[in-house]
Design a protein that fits this description.
eight-stranded mixed beta sheet; Glutamine Phosphoribosylpyrophosphate, subunit 1, domain 1; about 325 residues; about 40% helix; alpha+beta; about 20% strand; four-stranded antiparallel beta sheet
C-alpha cells in the first residue's frame, strides 16, 4: 500500500510539474510581422536603409506589445501594427505602395478572426489611407467578405474611414522603380514582391491575421494577388494557427498557401514549423513560387519560412523573446 501511494504521489507531482512547466513556456501573447520577401541582401542595402527598416519593424512590434499587455485583442492589434507599416514609405503597402502599369496605386488588404472565422478584404482601392481598416470594416460592418475598387471606396466613405487624394501614395522611389521596369518590362518579374502582414495570439487565446499590399510593380488589367484572398494570403483559425503571406501572389493563390498551413496541421498533424516548410520550401519551391510567410499557432509557437534571399520579419513574445531579421543568414 505504501509503495502504491508512493508511486501515485510521484505520478501526481510529475504531472503537476509538467503542467507548470508547460504553462510557463506558453506565452500569454505573441506578435509576428513581415514587411515583404524578395531579393533582399546586404549588398543591395545601405546601412542607413537597413537601420530605417529595423527601426520601423521594432516600432510596429512594440506598439502591438503595448496593446496586448493592456488586454487588447488579436484583431485590434493586427490593425494597429499593420497601420504603422502602411503609413511608412519603406514598405509596399499604403504610403509606400508600388505603381501599376498605368501609373496608379491600387491597394489590397485582408483580415481574419481565428475565433469566429469571420473575415474581411478589399482589393484595388486607390484613395483609402489605411486599407487594413477598411478590410476590418468589411468584416464587422457588412455581410460580405470582399469589396473591390470604387464600391470599396464608397463603403469606406460611408463608414467614416479616412480617404485621401490618390497623390498621397506617390513616392519618388516607387515612381522610379516603375520607370525602370517600363524601360525593360522583362525586369518586372525580378522586382521583389513586397507586402506587410501581422499575426497575433492574444491573452484570451484568440488568433488573428492581416495582410496589406500595393501589389506588383507594373501590374496590369486590374490584377489582384493573394493578399486580399482569404486562404491564399491570409488565414486564421483558433484550432490551428494564424498566417500571413508575402511573395508571388499567383502561386500563393493556386496553392492556397495560408490555408494549406492550417490544413497540414489539422489533417496531417504537422507542427507549425513543418507545415510552413512543407508549403514554402517544397511545394512552392518545386514550381518556382517565391516568397514566404509568418505564422503563430494556438500554443504561441512561431514559424517564418521563406525561399527568397531575404524577408523583413520580426516577432515579440510576452516571455521577453524578441527578434527583428532581414536576411537569410
Amino acid at each position: 500500500m505504501k509503495y502504491f501511494i508512493s508511486k501515485l504521489t510521484i505520478l501526481v507531482i510529475s504531472l503537476v510539474f509538467f503542467n507548470f512547466i508547460t504553462a510557463q513556456q506558453k506565452p500569454e501573447y505573441v506578435i509576428v510581422i513581415h514587411g515583404g520577401a524578395g531579393v533582399i541582401t546586404k549588398k543591395n542595402m545601405t546601412p542607413e536603409k537597413e537601420a530605417a527598416y529595423k527601426q520601423k519593424l521594432n516600432e510596429a512590434l512594440e506598439t502591438g506589445q503595448k496593446m496586448l499587455k493592456k488586454g487588447g485583442t488579436a484583431t485590434e492589434t493586427v490593425i494597429a501594427v499593420i497601420k504603422i507599416m502602411e503609413n511608412s514609405p519603406l514598405f509596399n503597402a499604403g504610403k509606400g505602395a508600388v505603381f501599376t502599369h498605368d501609373g496608379k496605386n491600387e491597394l489590397d488588404a485582408s483580415i481574419m478572426d481565428g475565433k469566429t472565422l469571420n473575415a474581411g478584404a478589399v482589393a484595388g482601392v486607390t484613395d483609402v489611407k489605411n486599407p487594413i481598416t477598411l478590410a476590418y470594416a468589411v468584416m464587422t460592418k457588412s455581410k460580405h467578405v470582399m469589396l473591390s475598387s470604387k464600391g470599396a471606396s464608397q463603403f469606406a466613405k460611408e463608414q467614416g474611414i479616412e480617404i485621401v487624394d490618390p497623390s498621397y501614395f506617390y513616392t519618388e522611389n516607387r515612381w522610379k522603380s516603375l520607370q525602370k521596369v517600363l524601360e525593360n518590362e522583362k525586369k518586372a518579374e525580378k522586382e521583389k514582391h513586397g507586402t506587410v502582414g501581422c499575426v497575433v495570439l492574444d491573452k484570451y487565446g484568440n488568433l488573428a491575421a492581416g495582410t496589406s499590399t500595393g501589389g506588383m510593380t507594373n501590374k496590369q488589367y486590374g490584377r489582384i494577388g493573394d493578399s486580399p484572398i482569404i486562404g491564399a494570403g491570409t488565414y486564421a483559425d483558433n484550432a490551428t494557427c494564424a498566417v500571413s503571406c508575402t511573395g508571388h501572389g499567383e502561386f500563393f493563390i493556386r496553392y492556397v498557401v495560408a490555408y494549406s498551413v492550417s490544413a497540414l496541421m489539422k489533417y496531417k498533424g504537422l507542427s507549425l514549423q513543418d507545415a510552413g516548410n512543407e508549403i514554402i520550401n517544397k511545394t512552392l519551391k518545386d514550381v518556382g513560387g517565391e516568397g514566404g510567410l509568418i505564422s503563430v499557432d494556438k500554443d504561441g509557437n512561431i514559424a517564418m519560412p521563406f525561399n527568397t534571399p531575404g524577408m523583413f520579419r520580426g516577432y515579440i513574445k510576452s516571455t521577453g523573446e524578441k527578434e527583428v531579421l532581414i536576411y537569410r543568414d
